[in-house]
User: Which sequence fits this backbone?
């Protein structure tokens, strides 16, 4: 119903509510059918796939490592990501770092508390970083081995690739990330021998 004195360009409350309902329904439909578009990831842009709380691999071969400890001049933001990247077999030129959110996944494993202090970041997180890198490495190897129909033990990682030495096949981490994310992380992944 038009109010007396209202111009014809004004929208009634009913018309506004109907328009808003249709627009909201359209957004919900877009989210349900193409969430990556609705959330700002254009088709064709690289995806980032988490393999665990500490590591994400992008379809562009980027390796994003989460840093949970504050850098206070002791090199923690280099040391801990380096431990994980080394165990993974990452290409160092593709590694990126991001700060962790506040979450129980990033608590100090010895004290069960998320903090930086007591000069214990390396000693507390070293083994955990090795395990997270080894776990992701084994998931990537399994994904490649399933694709090639070979035993994962015949595969290794190097410079951001999974390599099957016997057949000379290789696959980039970015090509394997989605398949690897569907594989259950190993409970006790083997860590590499240190010489």
Assistant:
């Amino acid at each position: 119903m038009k109010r007396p004195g209202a111009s014809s360009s004004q929208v009634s409350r009913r018309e506004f509510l109907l328009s808003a309902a249709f627009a909201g329904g359209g957004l919900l439909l877009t989210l349900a059918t193409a969430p990556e578009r609705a959330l700002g990831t254009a088709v064709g842009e690289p995806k980032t796939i988490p393999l665990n709380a500490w590591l994400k691999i992008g379809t562009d071969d980027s390796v994003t490592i989460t840093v949970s400890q504050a850098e206070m001049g002791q090199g923690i933001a280099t040391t801990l990501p380096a431990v994980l990247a080394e165990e993974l077999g990452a290409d160092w030129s593709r590694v990126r770092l991001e700060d962790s959110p506040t979450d129980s996944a990033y608590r100090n494993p010895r004290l069960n508390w998320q903090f930086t202090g007591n000069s214990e970041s390396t000693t507390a997180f070293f083994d955990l970083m090795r395990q997270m890198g080894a776990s992701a490495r084994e998931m990537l190897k399994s994904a490649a081995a399933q694709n090639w129909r070979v035993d994962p033990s015949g595969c290794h990682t190097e410079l951001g690739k999974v390599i099957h030495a016997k057949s000379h096949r290789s696959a980039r981490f970015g090509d394997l990330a989605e398949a690897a994310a569907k594989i259950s992380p190993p409970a006790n992944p083997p860590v590499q021998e240190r010489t």
